[in-house]
Design a protein that fits this description.
about 450 residues; 9-stranded mixed β-sheet; 12 helices; about 30% helix
Length: about 450
Amino acid sequence: MSEVKVSVIVTAHNYGKYLPQCLDSVIKQRFTDWEMIVVDDGSTDSTPVILNHYKNKYPEKIEVITTEGVGLAKACNTGIRASKGRYIIRLDADDYFDENILLIESYILDSDPNIHMVYPDYYRINKYGEIIDSYRLQKVNDEVKLLDRNPLAAGAMFRRECYDAIGGYSEELRYQEDYDFWIRFIDKFNVYNVNLPLMYYRKHDVSMSNNFEARMEARRYVKKKFVDKKQYYEGKNIIAVIPAMGLFRNREKLALKPLNGKPLIAYTIEEALKTELIDRVIVSTEDQEIAEVSKKFGAEVPFLRPVELARTSVPFDNVLRHMIEVFKEREEDVPDLIVQLQYFTPFRKEKHITEAIDTILLYNTDSVIGVVVDLTFHWKPDKYGLAPVGYQKRLLREDKNTIYKENGSIYVIKTKNLYKNSFLGSKVGHVEMSPKDSWKIEDEFSYWVAEKILEELS
């Protein structure tokens, strides 16, 4: 079996209409020492016919393997295990390469044995093949510490020996297999970004990335598995703090308002108590009634906060600093991490809290916040009326860059940051939540919607 330098692994499932452009982009490469392994994972469209044509036309360069709906991770592993290349690069059937990608990336790996993977910038194209924008990726470990978002798996060229060392793609995952692969890869090896757009990534509404709940569940699993393996919890003292003022914006005690027969604050207390990583669940309040109800549902209220700290104008980091000073005076353990949970976001669950703690430990950020994707268009007052904020071109929703909105449900901070200029610090991680899980009760309408949601869930 003769070796080639680069093996291109193409995974295909019912993307026949895009497949010729994908395959042609490999065939037209300026670099010629390559083979292409195409794994057709149970396609029922024109994919098999197209692959048969290309295989007959380029028998020395293309090998086709057929699998029966095994999923992306196993299809990738199947293709890579059948390959002969020293370097591996993946390509999905709906994307395509710039003609220079194999030449440039293989040269970088040839030139520096301390680089184990190289990945490019890319163009985003829509389902019609029109370029939406050019996407410049940040340099892992220089500009970004892989904070929750790995570069594209397609277009990244890595050494086969490194793939073998980490055991390939995890076949137990149906989603986020790329994310899992990247986390394990950068834990052992060095990666490098070449700031050239060398591939075309197609963004369209039938991509696997649109299955939000399954994607998020897989991501939480990947984080937890890695953090558990590294024992990052070892020796960490973690507490949850739930702030609850007696008067919320000069209205009734919202924390005690019944929601589906239970005080609003109880939902947050119960989820915090379910979180195994949390050592103590503390409600911070100046109100005796809120304190008694909170204790009834299992939370601690070790003291009532001073009235001067129970105003909306007081930053909550002041409240936390006061709490830490009380702990020191009482010679109680000072936590390493503080998880701040707002009681007016009742649909945030234990899984979100656990993921937030996993995230700060995994990426060693200063803090982690809960966010929700914001696809709306924002405007600001300008000289001639309104001017757009954050975008120049009005794109379709599926073509917009991702913008996150802080949802106020979860904040995880390192206690030591309370004594710095910003308690969130300069390195802020995030956990993405759905609009429902991010729902915030602020007025009668949002309260009514929350009741309707609970009625449907019950």
